Amino acid sequence: MIKSGKLLNPLLPELPKDVRGRPWRDNREVLDGILWVLRTGAPWRDLPEKYPPYQTCHRRFQQWSSDGTLEKVQMTLTEMLEKRKKNKYE
Sign (positive/negative) of CA torsion 60, 62, 64, 67? Predict the structure, then answer.
């Protein structure tokens, strides 16, 4: 799990509150699963069991890709890494 909750959590949509059926999986867990697939290049079905089901991760990947959430997350992570690099070499 990426330890940047203060930066990323506000970027993720709120989970629906009054929903029937199964409770929604935590957005951070889902994001970590999505990032695993993107980082490894593995198929969604190969997502390790420590993450939410691959169907959940893939569905949110599609939602967040279309609504701009993943773009905001990517920009934030990129800025974080650039700051770390800068601080490391100062």
Answer: negative
Structure tokens at 53: 């089901």
Instruction: Output the pTM of the full model.
Output: 0.81
Phi then psi for 29, rounded to 5 degrees? -65, -45
Q: How far apart are the C-alpha atoms of 26 and 15, rounded to whole Å?
A: 8
Spatial neighbors of 4 by CB under 8 A, at least 6 apart, are: 76, 77, 80
Give the residue extent of every domain in the chain.
Answer: 25-88
Amino acid at 39: R
pLDDT per residue over 15-26, tens digit each? 777 778 888 899
C-alpha span between 57 and 31 (Å, rounded): 7
Where do we find the tokens 């974080």?
A: 80
